[in-house]
Amino acid sequence: MGNHVERLHYYKLRLMKKTPMDPDVFDELVKIIENDKPKPKLPKGNETFVVALADWQLGKSDGGGTKEVIKKANQMIVDVQQQVKDLRKTGHKIDELYIVGLGDLVEGCDGHYDMQTFSVDLDMRSQVRLAWQLLIKIVKAWAPLFNKVTIACVPGNHGEVRKNGRAFTTFGDNWDIHVFEILEAVIAENKKAYKHVSFDIPDDELVVVTNIRGKKCVFAHGHQFRSGGTNSFAKQQKWLALQSLAKLKADGCDILLSGHYHHLSIVQEYNTLFLQAPSIDGGSRWAENTHALVSDPGTLTFVIGKNTISNMEVI
Question: Rounded to an integer, what distance in angstroms lies between the CA atom of residue 246 and that of residue 243?
Fold first, then answer.
């Protein structure tokens, strides 16, 4: 470079792993990458979304039978997901889910009404298996959307273990309770994904009493409402009045939620909200022909806040 000389240097090297990675360890790491699906952290809120699962009566052949009930249940799963999403967009701070099994998720096979055994399209084992499979599908779809999930259930009359048309064991010996116990056992085996899910399953009671956002809630199937009048609200009212006079667990509740009658009823009286949940079953030929009773199928949902009960909707 003119009168100046500049000496340059270069280096040559070869990189090698000091300890080759165990192929089994590598494969395990690849699986972690493929299978690990982190869940987004949900914001804390102050509202609880309630879903009332009532009177599916899986196995009943009326109105399209079990296939039609499954179709409605699958649609309901998607509709609930969309409803929660829409409510959050409008400003609702929903961070908790309360699923209530209000009984009669199975039809039974004998002893509830004339011609039942002849008309069912599933045996008892199949009814029960289908019920808990649908419940598992529901939890898998909904649980990731909430910080806390509580699942409660009460026994219905169609879930009773019967002989000669009458229950003959205990209140707790009921298929509506059994299917939720199966669900609880399955969830317990998946603690990592469902550690935020808890259960409220009665041992030998017909009701569940709980507190949601400061509201005392009573859940019952409704077959124990034996007097008071010809409509479901009158029966609810009479039953709750007697419970209060006797100072039993339901005394002083803010919300009484029940099933059994397969239609929607909402009455606000005596500082109590009386809710009657509809069903997604296909109706009843017997009820239509004997009492001209028909109702639209659906699932009742609503939102409970600290001082509010809102967005009651049948989906």
Answer: 5
* 52: nearest Cα among 272, 226, 260, 283: 260
The closest of 203, 208, 106, 115 to 161, measured between CA atoms, is: 106
What is the H or E stretch that residue 176 is in? helix 175-188
Please give the Cα distance from 44 to 272 (Å, whole number): 28
Rg (CA), the chain: 27
Distance CA 146, CA 48 (A): 9
Which tens digit of pLDDT belongs to each residue from 75-117? 999 999 999 999 999 999 999 999 999 999 998 656 566 666 6
* Token code pair at residue 88: 């959050």
CA distance 261 to 279: 8
Q: CA 259, CA 101: separation in Å to the nearest integer?
A: 9
Cβ within 8 Å of residue 221, ≥6 positions away: 102, 103, 104, 154, 155, 156, 157, 176, 206, 258, 259, 260
Which pLDDT tens digit goes with each residue over 176-215? Answer: 999 999 999 999 998 889 999 999 999 999 999 999 999 9
The answer to whether 91 and 248 have CB atoms below 8 angstroms apart is no
Give the DSSP H or E segment for 51: strand 47-53
Using CA of residue 15, residue 18, residue 20, residue 25, what is the dihedral sign? negative
| Pairing of the two strands 309-314 and 300-304 | antiparallel
Q: Contact, 136 vs 129, CB < 8 A?
A: no
